[in-house]
Design a protein that fits this description.
Layout (H helix, E strand, L loop, with lengths): L1 E4 L2 E7 H7 L8 E3 L7 H5 L6 H13 L5 H11 L6 E3 L4 E5 L9 H15 L7 E6 L3 H10 L5 E8 L5 H8 L5 E6 L3 H12 L2 H6 L1 E4 L5 H7 L1 H12 L5 E6 L4 H11 L4 E8 L4 H8 L23 H7 L4 H7 E5 L2 H15 L5 H16 L6 E6 L12 H4 L6 H4 L9 E3 L3 H10 L1
Parallel strand pairs: 5-13, 6-7, 6-9, 7-8, 8-14, 10-11, 10-13, 11-12
Antiparallel strand pairs: 1-2, 1-3, 4-5
């Protein structure tokens, strides 16, 4: 597998190099030189395969033998060892539950696969791998658990102070061992900017072997395609053959993986980007002008991104043709008030509890059905996190009905291990250099 930079298509690097470097020196993002189209027979017969079997076939095709079959199968069986069920809520709306992994968020797919791929490529005696990750909520917890105890690896997680939920903060800051947490006096965009600056700092690059665990790393993006194929397999078992995916969207890695799956042959009729009031992409689709803006804090904190990194990958998939992209992508944006109302409505009507990110995807699904007269397609909205991670958002009547998984209960009472820094790069760089 060869990859190029979105800023320079003449650049070519191996998958291993892209995994460890995360970002090209020209500050683009890595993309596969070729995107394979899967055998139509495999797509037709997806319903015959399990999630690990689907994941293996998808990964084998895109990685193009960079990892031998036996090793790749072992990595996938170890990383993707939990379910991602599609649950029917309404006549034309179903929910894809992606929160059944260890950190209770969809990020487990990418973080667990990436950590095992890095461990596989990391050769004995090599310089310690320093993993930097910015998180607006769920990425950090998934990365922390994915890399906890991995030999010759140190993980540094940056998160915006006071802008993650209490449970998310516990998942970030109570691990110890090879996991460090830094609370930044700023927004997620500030955290992400610090990580990007670190990768392009000559002194840090000379001193450390740096890589990223954010969705800017291609090894995070590839495994997120798995659950799109698996969701379609489950629809096939129901006799459904058309699908529209509604995706909670912040940094646009999740929906970017969906587009990658589509490029590989998954028959998706439409994608819906569901955002909170951080509406950089919906505004672009309306005006044709892409204008990054400071992020605003909302209840759906993992989507509080004003300059989504992965948007450049989506535009690259369409070779910059926004007119073609607009045919396949619809975007809606919703407020906190609408989010809370949706949570209460679905609970009272369906006895189903959604996290705020999931609620926005449900709102977008419903809005799409109102805007289109289409009775043939099945709408699947992605549930990206377990509702227990956001206890302060729900009314007491709903909060009392949330079943808290045992792994969350075990976090309570643990000591918080985190340092506080401002959003200036020199302060962050000094922290890294001090070790």
């Amino acid at each position: 597998m060869q990859l190029y930079s979105t800023n320079n298509k003449d650049l070519r690097v191996s998958f291993k190099e892209a995994v460890f470097n995360s970002l090209p020196a020209d500050r683009g993002l890595y993309m596969p030189e070729t995107i394979p189209v899967l055998d139509p027979g495999f797509i037709r017969d997806l319903h015959l395969y399990s999630l690990p079997e689907i994941a293996f076939t998808v990964a084998k095709n895109i990685l193009n033998d960079d990892i031998p079959d036996s090793d790749l199968k072992r990595i996938i069986d170890d990383a993707i060892n939990f379910e991602a069920p599609v649950v029917k809520l309404d006549e034309n709306i179903q929910v894809l539950e992606l929160f059944h992994g260890p950190s209770l968020a969809f990020k487990d797919f990418g973080a667990r696969f990436m950590s095992r791929v890095m461990s596989y490529f990391l050769e004995a005696g090599e310089k310690e791998l320093n993993v930097l990750v910015a998180t607006s909520g769920d990425t950090g917890g998934a990365v922390a658990l994915g890399f906890l105890g991995v030999p010759d690896t140190r993980v540094t997680i940056l998160y915006p102070k006071g802008k993650v939920s209490p449970i998310q903060e516990l998942q970030l800051t109570t691990n110890g061992q090879n996991i460090r947490a830094i609370e930044i006096e700023g927004t997620f965009d500030d955290c992400q900017a610090l990580v990007k600056l670190a990768f392009n700092d000559p002194e840090l690059k000379a001193r450390f072997r740096l890589t990223s665990a954010n969705s800017i790393n291609i090894s995070r993006l590839i495994p997120q395609t798995f659950y799109y194929f698996n969701a379609y397999a489950q629809l096939q078992r129901q006799g459904k053959h058309e699908v529209i995916f509604s995706v909670p969207s912040g940094n646009f890695g999740n929906i970017g993986a969906g587009f990658l799956a589509w490029k590989m042959g998954l028959p998706v009729k439409q994608f819906i980007a569901a955002t909170n009031i951080n509406d950089t992409v919906p505004a672009f689709l309306k005006s044709g002008v892409y204008q990054a803006k400071p992020s605003v804090q909302t209840y759906s904190n993992a989507m509080d991104v004003g300059n989504p990194s992965n948007w450049v990958r989506i535009m690259d998939l369409f070779e910059g043709d926004s007119s073609e992209l607009k045919q396949l992508l619809t975007a809606y944006t919703f407020t906190d008030e609408e989010t809370l109302k949706a949570i209460e409505e679905v609970y009272h009507e369906q006895a189903y509890i959604m996290c705020p990110h999931t609620a926005i995807a449900w709102l977008a699904s419903r809005q799409w059905l109102r805007d289109h007269n289409d009775e043939t397609a099945e709408l699947v909205f992605l549930s990206t996190a377990h509702p227990c991670k956001f206890p302060d958002i729900f009314p007491e009547a709903i909060a009392s009905k949330i079943v808290v998984p045992s792994q969350v209960q075990e976090l309570e009472g643990r000591e918080k291990l985190a340092v506080s820094l401002g959003k200036d790069f020199e302060g962050f760089k000094g922290y890294l250099l001090r070790g």
